[in-house]
Amino acid sequence: MTYLSLSITLIFVLIPLVLSKTLKLGLEKDTMIATVRSIVQLLAIGYVLQFVFDTENYLFIFLMVTLMIVTATLNVRKKGAAIRGITWKVAVTLIFVELLTQGILLGFGITPPTAQYIISISGMVIGNSMVLAILFLNRFTSEVEARGEETELILSLGGTPKQAIHNQLTQAIKASMIPTIESQKTVGLVQLPGMMSGQIIAGASPVQAVQFQLLILFLILTNAAVTSVMLGYLSYPTLFNERMQVLKTKNGK
Questions:
Q1: How far apart are CA 123 and CA 60, in angstroms?
Q2: With pLDDT > 70 as the criterion, what percentage of the chain qualifies?
Q3: Do residues 97 and 64 make contact, with C-beta atoms less than 8 angstroms apart?
Q4: I want to staple 143 with a disulfide (CB 3.0 to 4.6 A). Which of 163, 168, 214, 245 is the partner?
Q5: pLDDT by residue (tens digit) across 16-34?
Q6: Angstrom distances, CA of residue 200 to CA of 42, 193, 203, 218, 237
Q7: Is the whole model's pTM more than 0.90, yes or no?
Q8: What are the backbone angles phi and psi of residue 187, rounded to the nearest 5°?
C-alpha cells in the first residue's frame, strides 16, 4: 500500500465525522484526536519495530515489552482509581500474564524466540489483558457500590470479607470474560480475525493463517480468565480494613 492509497482511506474517518456533526453527537474532536494519534503512534512504532527486528537485541525486546506494560497499566488505573494500590495490582497482573504466555510459547518451542514473534504476540496479549482489566474494574466497582448494603449485612452476620464480596467478584469476572467467550463461538462464521486476515492478505496459506489465529484465540481465552481472576483477588482485600469493615473508596462512594 502506498501513502497515496493510505491517504484515500481517510474517507473512513470523514464518514463518522459527518455523522457526528449532522446528529450533533459532539464526537468530532475525539474522533480527530484518535485519528491523529493513531497515525503518529503507528507510524512511529513501525519504524521502531523495524529497527528492533533488524537488530534482534534482547535488550530492545525487553524495553518494548516493558513500554507496553507500563502504558497499559497507566491506562487501566484510571478506571480503577477507587481501589487502593490499583497501579501495582494491574502491573503485577499484566507481568504475570505476559510471563505465563511467553513461558509456555517459548518453553514448548511453539514460537521461536525472535523479536518478530515475541513483540507481536506480547502486543496482542498485553492489549487484550488491558481491555479485559478495564471491563472487570468497571463492572466490579459498579457491583461493589450497588450492593454495599448486602456486603455490610454479610459482615454484620459474621461473614468474612471474601464471603461478603464473593457475588460481586464472580459477577465482575464473568462479565469481563463473556465478550471473549462469545466472540470465539462465532469466529470464522461471523468474522475473520485481524491476524488471520492480515496473513492471508500478505500471501500466507489460509490453513497456516488459521493455525496462528487459533494460537492467539487460545491465548486470549487464558488472558480473559487469568487477568480477571488475578486482578479481582488482588483488589478485593483493599476494600476492607483490619477490622473487616468496608472502606470508603477514593471518590467517596
A1: 14
A2: 92
A3: no
A4: 168
A5: 999 999 998 899 999 999 9
A6: 21, 11, 5, 20, 47
A7: no
A8: -60, 135
Whether residue 119 contacts residue 52, with contact meaning beta carbons closer than 8 Å, is answered with yes
**pLDDT digits over 84-116, tens only?**
889 999 999 999 999 999 999 999 999 999 998
Q: Given the C-alpha cell 463473556, which residue does it identify?
A: 178
Residue 158 has a pLDDT of 80
Rounded to an integer, what distance in angstroms lies between the CA atom of residue 175 and that of residue 87? 22
Best CA proximity match to 223, nearest among 83, 120, 93, 61: 93
Asked if residues 69 and 95 have their Cβ atoms less than 8 Å apart, the reply is yes
What cell numbers appear for 53 in the block?
A: 527486528
User: Which residues, 6+ apart, have CB-to-CB distance to 133 below 8 Å?
Assistant: 72, 76, 79, 80, 90, 93, 94, 227, 228, 231
Cell of 70: 507500563
User: Which DSSP letter does residue 236 get?
Assistant: G
Domain ranges of the chain: 1-55, 57-239
C-alpha cell at 60: 530492545
pLDDT for the residue 225: 92
Cα–Cα distance, 9 to 3 (Å, whole number): 10
pLDDT score of 70 more than 70: yes
Integer Cα distance of 133 and 93 in angstroms: 9
Which pLDDT band, with edges at 50, 70 and 90, does 191 fall under? low
Amino acid (one-letter) located at 55: T
In the chain, the DSSP E strands lie at none
